[in-house]
Specification:
Elements (H helix, E strand, L loop, with lengths): L3 H21 L18 E8 L2 E8 L6 H14 L9 H4 L2 E8 L3 E2 L8 H4 L5 E7 L2 E5 L1 H6 L4 H11 L13 E10 L1
Antiparallel strand pairs: 1-2, 1-3, 3-7, 4-7, 5-6, 5-7
Helix pairs in contact: 1-2
Length: 185
């Protein structure tokens, strides 16, 4: 994963990217002086909260872009393009709390029977991606902790995030992936 220094850099960059977009309507340029380790392609999510309530969360689950570029893109998307919320405005910017989560590459959990997921997923360590056909849902590791989910409830809620029935994870046509995340806030 990345160093604490690099993670804090991404956190500040996410805030700057949103502030710059609010002022100019344009995407901030990649700074010249960033930690070189952020050139690595990593999955990145930016979560924006207001008064401890979700205000926007968008990210890349897969390592398709360098961490530095991904952070800029998903910070702007979380603030202005999360379909669950209106775009943020300048008046509320100072009331927002930002969080950047850097992800490991998702790993398919292979089990002979769905009951075995209970032994393969650790609350507080693992995030989940569930995919069935074209439906796909992702919940970050901190979601299970913040909501006091057990493994089964975490699986159920990830299915619901995918727009499929809560018990779909028991269907062998459903793929369950886990990943870990480094959280910077």
């Amino acid at each position: 994963m990345i160093s604490e220094r690099a993670g804090q850099y991404l956190l500040e960059l996410a805030k700057e990217a949103v502030a710059f977009y609010l002022e100019t309507g344009k995407k901030i340029e990649v700074p010249m002086d960033y930690p070189i380790e952020l050139d690595e392609k990593l999955g990145v999510f930016v979560t924006i909260n207001k008064k401890n309530r979700l205000r926007g969360c968008i990210g890349y689950a897969e390592p398709i872009e360098s961490a530095i570029k991904a952070t800029i893109e998903v910070a702007i998307a979380a603030a202005f393009n999360d379909p669950r919320f209106n775009a943020i405005d300048a008046d509320e910017y100072s009331k927002l709390e930002f969080e950047v989560t850097v992800l490991t590459e998702p790993e398919l959990i292979e089990v002979a029977h769905p009951d075995q997921y209970m032994d393969e997923i650790e609350i507080g360590r693992d995030g989940l991606i569930i995919q069935k056909g074209y439906s796909r849902g992702l919940l970050l590791p901190q979601v299970a902790v913040e909501n006091a989910f057990d493994v089964e409830t975490f699986l159920d809620h990830t299915c619901m995030k995918a727009g499929i029935s809560a018990d779909s994870w028991m269907d062998e046509m459903c793929d369950v992936y886990k990943f870990q995340g480094q959280i910077f806030k």
